[in-house]
Amino acid sequence: MPTIKSLEDLKKMREEALRKQELKTTTGKTEIVVGMGTVGIAAGARETLKEILEFVDSHHLENIIIRQTGNIGIDSFEPIVQVILPGQEKVTYGHVSPEVAKTIMEEHVVKGKLVPDYQVKG
Amino acid sequence: MREIALHILDIAANSISAGARNISISIIGNRRDDALDLSISDDGKGMTPEMVQTVTDPFTTSRTERNVGLGIPLLKAAAEACNGWFNLTSELGKGTNVQVHFQLGHIDRMPLGDLPSTFLALIIGTPAVHWIFEVKHDSSAFYFDDTEIKQELGEDCLAEPEVIRYIREVFTEGIETLALN
Predict the structure, then answer these.
(1) What CATH number should be reported for the domain whose range is B4-176?
(2) For chain B, what are the domain ranges?
(3) ipTM, 2 decimals?
(4) Does the beta carbon of B161 lie under 8 angstroms from any beta carbon of chain A?
(5) Which domains does chain A have, with CATH numbers?
(6) Cβ contacts from A onto B, under 8 A
(7) Phi, psi values for residue B164, rounded to 5°
């Protein structure tokens, strides 16, 4: 992938990407939420988020919204990641190490298949 | 937490929870004075004097799920173990400023850690906040204000692959050259 040297380069690349995107049908955005309270951070949430960002970049995923949130309230399951596919219910995953995050991205975000081993049922 | 960068992420998460619109983070290392100074300022809802007095106590927290908060006491203890100090000032309705001082060369001082990842997590994870990051080491400095990138691209686009890569490169290149650890 080419290195983007300046904000000007970035603008050009984005305009190109947007043109390509217009050709596809818009299906809404997938939302990924990472719990970033003290417990989440101590349990490795930043590395989990980093893996998710790297996945989005390397697989060139479009229409993704990534958010951080405070404590979700289930500390013993941190790091916690929630995935909301367009028009679907929120799915909560616990003990999401960077490796697990990669699996969730591959299976749930890309293919739409749940990863039951790490799912936290409320 | 064995990285100052993780503590910064934790303190900034408090600022986000306090509803801040503007958050400014500075990390200044100075070898001549053997000093490492952190500052995290926000314009969130602030705290009452009573809350400020008790905030470094591990049995105080604003969260509702349970009532023990450890982030600030751990950072305070880490600073004090390195000939440093922790200071928090806050005004209700105005905002909060956290300042932490470490002896830069103290043998027990934890490493700064992965600052680019902390900054990236904050800017991508909370695009509605206006972020200013500043890192200085002696006479070299890295400064990032997200106003320009948001004006050019809009805040909705921050999680796009090209934008993530661009911001990460800006942070990594800018901060690594400072050689502040």
Answers:
(1) 3.30.565.10
(2) 4-176
(3) 0.80
(4) yes
(5) 27-118 (3.40.30.10)
(6) 96
(7) -55, -45
